[in-house]
Specification:
By secondary structure, this protein is α+β, with helices and mostly antiparallel strands. It has a single domain (3-135), classed as Immunoglobulin-like (Sandwich), CATH 2.60.40. Helices cover 20% and strands 38% of the residues. It contains two helices and nine strands. The protein has helices at 3-21, 24-33, and strands at residues 40-41, 44-47, 51-52, 58-64, 74-81, 88-93, 102-107, 113-121, 126-135. The strands form two sheets. Strands 1, 3, 5, 6, 8 and 9 form a six-stranded mixed beta sheet that branches. The protein has a three-stranded antiparallel beta sheet with strand order 2-4-7, with no helix packed on it. It starts with a helix and ends in a 7-residue tail after the last strand.
Length: 142
């Protein structure tokens, strides 16, 4: 990693706590999707590069630990963001015939922000994983 990118990363990490304090809209969107309850941490893995040079088409993968049987499977996977114009990015519907609980897509990122991936299980429980992403060239700005 070159010196310019390292300095930019450190500068953006320094403002991350202030940005996190301004995240009630993300928390509200996640809680609304989860039916008013706080999702549990675990079972979900959100894979995205921690440093994104161009926010126009960022690859994202979400995996959920589930046997995908009729009794125990993922019914939905949702992806939310903190700072894009719309908080909800995508909702994927799955069933036991899906074989495995894994989805991949590309998304636009307006700026450096926190992302949340959630999974709703057949028993009604909701699980999550959140990550912070640094974006050097923003998208979604019009």
């Amino acid at each position: 990693m070159n010196i310019r990118r390292q300095c930019l990363s450190l500068a953006l990490l320094a403002v991350a706590p202030a940005a996190r304090a301004a995240a009630p809209a993300l928390d509200a969107a996640v809680r609304a999707w989860a039916g008013g309850e706080a999702p549990r941490d675990g079972r979900v893995v959100l894979e995205i590069a921690p440093l994104v040079e161009n926010g126009n088409a960022v690859p994202v993968t979400v995996r959920v630990a589930s046997p995908m049987t009729a009794a125990d499977h993922v019914t939905q996977i949702a992806l939310f963001n903190e700072r894009n114009p719309q908080r909800d990015v995508a909702v994927f519907h799955l069933g036991p015939a899906s074989g495995r609980a894994e989805v991949a897509t590309r998304m636009r990122l307006a700026t450096s922000q926190r992302l949340a991936a959630l999974a709703r299980m057949a028993d009604g429980s909701v699980w999550r994983h959140e990550v912070d992403v640094i974006v050097t060239l923003a998208a979604c700005i019009e």
